[in-house]
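Input sequence (456 aa), recorded before submission:
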Amino acid sequence: MTAPGDVTLLVVRLSDSFSDFWAALARELGVALVTWGGAPAEPGPPAAHAGVVLVAAGGHEPEVAALLPQLAVPRDVPVIVVGSAASHRLAAHIVAAGAADYFALPDDRDGLRDALAAAVQRRRASLGRAALAQLEAQAHAFRDIVGESPALKAVLERAARVVPHGDATILITGETGTGKELLARALHYGGPRAAAPFVELNCAAIPAALLESELFGHERGAFTDAKTAKPGLFEVAQGGTMFLDEVDHLAPELQSKLLRALDQKSVRRLGATATRTIDVRIVAATNTDLPAAVHASRFREDLFYRLNVITLELPPLRQRGDDVILLAEFFLRKFGAHYKLPQPNLTPEVRGALLAHAWPGNIRELRNAIERAVLLSAPGTIAVAELTRRPAPPASAGPLPFPAPLAEIQRAAARAMLDTAKGNRSEAARRLGISRSRLQRLLEGQAADDEEGDPN
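Predicted structure, token format:
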């Protein structure tokens, strides 16, 4: 842990109420305490060097809104106001004026202590990130994205133009496993927001009922289980980057709230009356055709245009030529070192197998295949059988009916591929080399009659 003196609690005294509490609170939090009396002859408070600012306003609450702009507090330093009036309207007015929160003493002592502890922890983390920003930038720079193919280089050259511009919204597209999160991290850690948080959220991994609270936060009592207030991920990402993976899975009502947050640069916690200003760069990612989702009314058109400022489309591995060899060698070094096994050379037979496979799971599939082969092959070798091993088909997938009418054979083949693709119709259609609509017709038993005129 960082030394206790790394964060300073600055108390701006408009009132002497509860003044004996501040020193004890600072000792409990392990921070240095600086007080400023606010007398006209005194110079301005040293807010620029504070980690947390607390305005003691007991009895002087109406003066807070005019005072806050005079403090010249950096945007990453929270200002917490403490008064004696327990009024939701007053609290909303003070937060709207720029404060991070308002607490009325003595009833809110525990809430104040928790809020200050969280602010101190975030400040220490911020100081640590600033010190390591250069190292993080090196660790996640574009050079860690392995590949020399023209298809990949074209994307990275386009991304490099955006890196210096920390406010540009970016949409990364590409099939599952192509490295969208790695590119998002490179954009963040290589740019001006590197010292601030990189916060990732998989929009498909959290139930829609919980996603709103996860994104925007909630106040205590906002719903049955809200025992304490919780900041949303937008607040956690303040000053940094929010990576929204699988953004196409957002529910329609959340799409509208996300659009509002991006347009107004503010969020409001569940159960709150005041909004909080945010400074967050959005990088979104999807493996689906968002324009098609817009056309089908599954995704808001205005949100699509808001996210689609800069588009970076990562190519699938099958379009990257010899990059599969470079990636395989990279993973061989990585897993050989990790498992303390001798690193095997890629024989012509292994290279041929790597290049011949379509890698529908892209880099993620290749990574897992190399790890499996390193562990299960004889030390220092790569067994092609382990490298290209496929999962067994589902037990229900029997042989295709034959002899049988053509429509029945095609429908059985379509169903078998759909089972292999675990119900993913787009993936099943891709593996069969047909369109999704053609797959649907095959599943419905339509075959030769509609083949003419359908190039897919």
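Checked by second reader. The chain has four domains: 4-128, 149-313, 317-387, 406-450.
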